[in-house]
Design goal:
The protein is of the alpha+beta class. It has 13 helices and eleven strands. 18% of the residues are buried.
Length: 429
Amino acid sequence: MTAKWEKIEKNVGVLEVEVDAEQVTVALDKAFRKVVQKVNVPGFRKGKVPRGIFEARFGIESLYQDAIDILLPEAYTKAIDEAGIEPIDRPDVDVEQFGKGKSFKFKAKVTVKPEVKLGDYKGLVVPVENTEVTEEEIAAELERLQNRHAELVVVDEGPAQDGDHTSIDFEGFLDGVPFDGGKGDNYSLELGSGSFIPGFEEQVVGLNIAEEKDINVTFPENYQEPTLAGKAVVFKVKLNEIKRKNLPVLDDEFAKDVSEFDTLEEYKKDLISKLQDRKVKDAEIAREAAIVEKAAEVSELDVPQVMVDTEIGLMLKEFENRLGQQGMNIDLYYQFSGQDEAALKAQMQGDAEKRTRNNLVLEEIAKAEKLEITDEDINEELENLSKLYGRSADELRSIFASNGYLENMAGDLKVRKAVKFLIDNSKSA
């Protein structure tokens, strides 16, 4: 077999492959053994038709496609290894020659991983963030804890306020006609949460119990339901109930209720310590992100859209998982946000391109610095994951090996080593 690679534009090239006639013969034999099991020829049982009779009746050409399907994957894999390229998408294959007694010739248009021209990535200067915990941050954390442990109390009179938890009846009308999905009874709505159509919640503020009001809003232009996108509608709303947060007093009793400490002072000291640890960790993450950005900025590469699309797919799955942890699914999110999948993907485009670019640069740095992943690195990561998932490291190794994730893990660890290399060889501002 011979393979010739020629780049025709940026990250795209043509791979010309020729497989010798002997391998074509072997593939035709395999194709015959497969196809003969399915054909009916009078006087013969399935699978027992002699080759000569089969070819006389159906023609040798009837085996070609099956033979190509058998031969092509292996030939393509060997060809990309021989050419030393890394495809990042399915090839566009054009069969130029295939036949009995002939070699198999095909061309494959292939999009490959882009070349990365690294800039001066050593000695990059990145700022060190201040990790001191301020009084404002302590106060904000205590307020957050107050809200978390607040009791919702029914309000019998007075207007609804921003932050109230309300129960409402509503029905939406477009040009005076009710529209599908625009009605709800005893719907729970936290005012100011931004979970409803923009402009809706603000107009519920000020309503009293049992009061009714016509609320005028306009659906977003990118709303998932085309018949409502960009349309002005009227919601007839009735306020049924108001519940308001009753914040607990910040005292020793509060500390006892929410922690293992006996006094508020002790609890605050513990909070400060945890906030300090969090700020240090956040600063480390920010420093890593900043130095990777700088390394990418001084490097040259063209990021193929197919790689960006793959990253967007991963980001979308991550987003769906986060929604699931919050008790919501993607369809509900689209409904509440007024977005659809296309709009969400477009929103992710910039971050996906940045993530793809950064990863390519880090992979190239790892290659340039000959950073390798050892068995010790893999074992350490498996031990860490073991604590996280509550399963033994050996069990995780077996699972990851069976689904091919061990190789992905090694790639991720190599990228992390590249980030550490950048940090170790950086300068503080």
